[in-house]
Description:
Blueprint: H1 6-24, H2 26-32, H3 42-63, H4 66-88, H5 97-114
Helix pairs in contact: 1-2, 1-3, 1-5, 4-5
Amino acid sequence: MQKTYKSLQAQMIYVILSGLPLVLFPNPLLELLGFEPTQEVWIRILGLLLLVLSVYYQRLSKFGNDQIVIATVFGRVIFCVGVVAFVVLGIGKPMLLAFVAAEAIFATWTWQEVNKK
Length: 117
């Protein structure tokens, strides 16, 4: 019987809560993060991609095998390293590190769930 991954269910909720504002009303979130408001479609596309990811996290939380779930941990670590690099290089605002913190917490939780005996 396959494990249920509570950490991926929490990740799904986090991703939905990050993606919906970017699709529906991106500028308040952008301003909160220290970025200029925009009318560009790209920020909404990013939000849509986050919503698509939430579907994957939901299905993985119920049916994923350990190897695929571990792949999500590695992906989230790569994301964290990339965002930290953007901030260090001055490309991204330091407020983005809040996303790094959330991702790191959820990735660590998932790693621990996979490695439970």
